[in-house]
Design brief:
Blueprint: H1 4-21, H2 27-43, E1 51-59, E2 62-63, E3 74-85, E4 90-99, E5 104-114, E6 117-126, E7 130-133, H3 159-175, E8 186-194, E9 197-200, E10 202-204, E11 207-209, H4 213-216, E12 223-234, E13 239-248, E14 263-272, E15 275-285
Parallel strand pairs: 1-6, 8-15
Antiparallel strand pairs: 1-2, 3-4, 4-5, 5-6, 8-9, 10-11, 12-13, 13-14, 14-15
């Protein structure tokens, strides 16, 4: 006759085996949760998103409920691409939504998925004028291959390498115009889009506008960066999402009207062989004194923890 202790041990083993047998939430699985959010958005029905009961939700730094992240006029998602980290259940999305009146809204959506439900929703959302003159969602019609390519495993940058490339970009941003300036790892033809507006990687007035030029010329001196996070790192696609605060250092004045306001920014860096190839940013003007809803060091560590 089997003892009670043996029976309990067997049940524990069976439970562990069943848990191990459950498939991990792979890229398609995580993308399905993103689909659920956008289905909820277009239908204006929060019930369509697979949300955990105690999920944390923020919109432009404000803690809120899921319904407040939806809006009645949202008619169609006309542009969207996703990154995921299957090991951590993290996703990041850039999307453009066409509204019923023909206007457009651009947003960054970050989700965390655990135990079959969305436990975190972070949104940075902008309409025209929410980041001064940085506005060009009509430019975003087809998703660049640099954002959707699955990189051969042997050619992939590591988690550490992807974060290092983004860190180098921010280092260049904070040291430009000073004797400590350190150049970022930017490809010569790197393109940057800010709320859809292409700001580098093209010819203007007969001169090529490179992503490095602004740093090299010290055009962003006086700006400040803080609360720098890396909540989603997708090694398969070679893309890292960084979320930061932009401000102006005490006693300084912005060199450009385009960078005169404090901002909450989500910046996607597409990195190939350690070099930044393409950058997409979603920006929303947010005064320094207002919180983001997330701890400054929230998310996985920069060393991949």
């Amino acid at each position: 006759m089997r003892s009670a202790g043996s029976a309990l041990t067997l049940l524990a083993l069976l439970a562990t085996t069943a848990l191990q047998a459950q498939p991990a939430c792979d890229r398609a699985c995580l993308t399905g949760f993103i689909d659920g959010y956008f289905n909820a958005l277009i239908a204006n029905d929060p019930g369509r998103a697979q949300l955990a009961r105690d999920a944390k939700i923020t919109l432009n730094g404000r803690v809120t409920g899921l319904r407040d992240t939806l809006w009645d006029a949202a008619a169609e998602t006309v542009y969207r691409w996703d990154i995921v980290n299957t090991r951590r259940g993290d996703t990041g999305t850039e999307a453009v939504v066409r509204n019923a009146d023909g206007s457009k809204t651009i947003l960054m959506l970050r989700l965390k998925v655990a135990s079959g439900a969305i436990t975190e929703v972070e949104i940075i959302r902008a309409n025209e004028g929410d980041a001064d003159r940085l506005w060009g969602p009509d430019t975003l019609k087809e998703v660049s291959p640099a954002l959707t390519l699955t990189i051969r495993e042997a050619d992939r940058d590591s988690y550490y390498g992807l974060v290092a490339a983004a860190e180098g970009y921010w280092r260049a941003f904070q040291t430009n115009g000073t004797e400590n300036y350190h150049r970022a790892a930017l490809l010569p033809d790197a393109q940057r889009f800010e709320n859809g507006l292409q700001t580098t990687g093209f010819v203007r007035d007969g001169q090529y506008v490179s992503a490095a030029a602004g740093f090299d010329q010290g055009r962003f001196v006086g700006r400040n960066l803080w609360d720098r996070r890396y909540p989603v790192v997708d090694t398969e696609r070679g893309i890292v999402l960084s979320i930061v605060r932009f401000g102006i250092k005490d006693g300084q004045q912005s060199q450009s009207t385009a960078t005169a306001n404090d901002r909450l920014v989500a910046e996607f860096f597409a990195v190939k062989a350690g070099m930044i190839q393409e950058i997409h940013a979603v920006l929303f003007n947010l005064p320094d004194a207002e919180p983001t809803g997330w701890a400054p060091d929230y998310g996985p560590g920069r060393g991949g923890r």
